[in-house]
Specification:
Elements (H helix, E strand, L loop, with lengths): L1 H40 L2 H32 L3 H36 L9 H21 L2 H26 L6 H36 L8
Helix pairs in contact: 1-2, 1-3, 1-4, 2-3, 3-6, 4-5, 4-6, 5-6
């Protein structure tokens, strides 16, 4: 009876760990959405708020890492249970990096808004939407243990890379005779890179989902 009770508690702990990862995914998704909105609308107050809230994501990362290590030390898990813990740890790390990039986008939005001059965003909104969809779909694949969806996210990274290449070409043609516009385009190049990196981390998450469900390591399925 005691062994059964212990196993039930352990299963509950694994579920709690995964729920923390899902919660972190929700925080990060919201951060990307709001950071992009602050850039498009040049909303300095919103950008500041997003930057402050990055601490919540960092705190949850530490919480997940500590909980993962505690479960390993207490339970010495094997097979699927160990993969649940390992992937939670890894996905939390990718989400933390995505949160950092959302912070960076908000910081750029704050700087651009301070100039009080319209910004020509070019491919930036499309890049942001694609990256956001990838993160949402990767986390949905994690929640629902959906390998097919995870593989689709991996393939979608090619679309994001194509958009980034177009964005880089457009933004690299800075108007040298307009110092403000040239500076804006340089800052948007950084934003484009942040969004491209968000897509990479979403792909990582999708790959971890495949590993969790199949025990097979993959790299950017095509």
């Amino acid at each position: 009876m005691e062994n059964k009770s212990t196993r039930q508690e352990y299963i509950h702990d694994l579920a709690e760990l995964q729920n923390k990862v899902i919660q972190m995914g929700e925080l990060v998704t919201t951060a990307i959405e709001r950071a992009t909105h602050s850039l498009i609308t040049q909303d300095r107050d919103l950008a500041r708020q997003i930057m402050k809230e990055d601490d919540d994501i960092d705190d949850l990362t530490i919480e997940i890492e500590d909980f993962s290590l505690l479960l390993i030390a207490k339970q010495q898990p094997i097979a699927h249970d160990l993969r649940v813990i390992a992937t939670s740890f890894k996905i939390a790390s990718d989400l933390e990096r995505i949160g950092d990039h959302a912070f960076d986008i908000a910081k750029t939005a704050k700087a651009l808004a301070a100039e009080k001059q319209p910004v020509e965003l070019l491919y930036t909104p499309q890049l942001a939407e694609t990256a956001l969809v990838m993160v949402k779909q990767a986390m949905k694949a994690y929640r629902e243990a959906d390998i097919v969806l995870a593989e689709a996210v991996c393939r979608q990274d090619d679309e994001l890379d194509e958009l980034f290449a177009r964005s880089f070409t457009e933004l690299s043609g800075a108007a040298v005779n307009d110092i403000v516009k040239a500076r804006q385009q340089a800052q948007l190049l950084f934003v484009a890179r942040y969004l491209e990196r968000i897509g990479d981390h979403a792909t990582n998450i999708a790959e971890w989902v495949v590993y969790l469900e199949t025990a097979e390591r993959v790299r950017k399925l095509r």
